[in-house]
Design brief:
By secondary structure, the protein is α+β, with helices and mostly antiparallel strands. It has three helices and seven strands, in the order αββββαββαβ. Strands 1, 2, 3, 4, 5, 6 and 7 form a seven-stranded antiparallel β-sheet that branches.
Length: 183
């Protein structure tokens, strides 16, 4: 596939399409998606922002890496600084139109399933559980600020301090980090 061919396909897959050959932005199922192509390096990348990781806990990294192993197929979790992304990369020359559509769907599904199944499709390879027994029932938490504000039940005052009730005896050290559930 070529950059020109991708440009022709995008109108049928993304709404609010904007950009130029080699770099486009649009929406798919209410998720912001970026599509990049580079013929000189024979690469295509589809990516969507999930949110900002406020604090990287080993448990969060384990959940994301485990998901990359057994339930994220072509789309993967990736970090850029503190930004969490859903990303797929593929050689441009061997990219087929059907694969391109599947990659778009997987990137979007991974964004939407962050905080619940952490899956990019219905297929899951055996690799163990991504949730520990002591997690809450839906696996969501508030250590990632999503692009749409989901996942953070606490508010900050003008000084930037968390708004917590005085005398709160909850042990914050035991709080489990989880990306937000994206509606």
């Amino acid at each position: 596939m070529t950059t020109t061919a991708i440009g022709k396909l995008l109108d049928s897959y993304l709404s609010q399409l904007d950009g130029k050959p080699g770099f486009w932005r649009g929406l798919r199922d209410e998720v912001e998606v970026f599509v990049l192509s580079d013929e000189s390096h024979d690469r295509m990348r589809i990516m969507a922002p999930i949110g900002e990781v406020r604090e990287m806990h080993p448990e969060l990294l384990q959940v994301l890496l485990q998901a990359n192993y057994d339930r994220a197929l072509d789309a993967r979790y990736a970090l850029r600084g503190k930004e969490l992304w859903s990303v797929t990369v593929h050689p441009l020359a061997t990219l087929a139109p059907d694969d391109f559509a599947s990659f778009l769907d997987q990137v979007v599904k991974l964004v939407k399933n962050t905080g619940s199944t952490f899956a990019s499709s219905d297929l899951v390879f055996g690799g163990g559980s991504i949730h520990d027994e002591d997690e809450d029932e839906n696996g969501s938490g508030d250590d990632v600020d999503s692009e749409n504000g989901a996942g953070d039940d606490e508010t900050e005052d003008e000084t930037g301090a968390d708004d917590e009730t005085e005398g709160d005896d909850d042990d914050d050290d035991d709080a489990r980090p989880h990306p937000p559930t994206i509606p």
